[in-house]
Design goal:
about 35% helix, 7 strands, single chain, Pnp Oxidase, Chain A, alpha+beta
């Protein structure tokens, strides 16, 4: 399994309620805000809309992204998260991190089968090999 993101990045993401993501390798895509969750030192996000052309579908085709936390930009790879225990822990973390009345609809909605299947983990992007 790939080594995780730097602890300082993970801690900053854990403290923030919104994480900027620019999906795909093209730099002309804009950053959009997503709700990040940290479970066991690993960073996860879940897509709400799953719409064509959105960040989740872009990552399904091209699993690289740039995330923005504060003023830092970090190049990452996107890996689909699986396993009922892990997905359940992510749902619990969403409920704990986003407890406001306005967030409840989304926290409940993140438990649906289609959104649960759209859980992404961000890991460091592999460096290109020298040829």
């Amino acid at each position: 399994m790939a080594r995780g993101l730097a602890p300082s990045i993970v801690a900053a993401i854990d403290r923030s309620s919104i994480l900027g993501i620019r999906a795909g390798a093209r730099s002309d895509h804009r950053f959009v805000g997503v709700w990040p969750i940290v479970v066991d030192g690993r960073v996860f996000v879940r897509s709400w809309t799953l719409k064509p052309g959105g960040w989740y579908r872009t990552l399904a085709d091209e699993p690289v992204a740039t995330i923005q936390v504060g003023s830092r930009r970090v190049r990452v790879s996107a890996v689909r998260a699986t396993g009922n225990r892990l997905l359940g822990a992510i749902e619990k973390a969403y409920a704990e991190k986003y407890p406001t009345p306005g967030a409840r609809k989304f926290v409940r909605g993140f438990r649906t089968k289609r959104r649960r299947a759209a859980t992404i983990e961000f890991v460091p992007r592999a460096k290109p090999r020298n040829r």
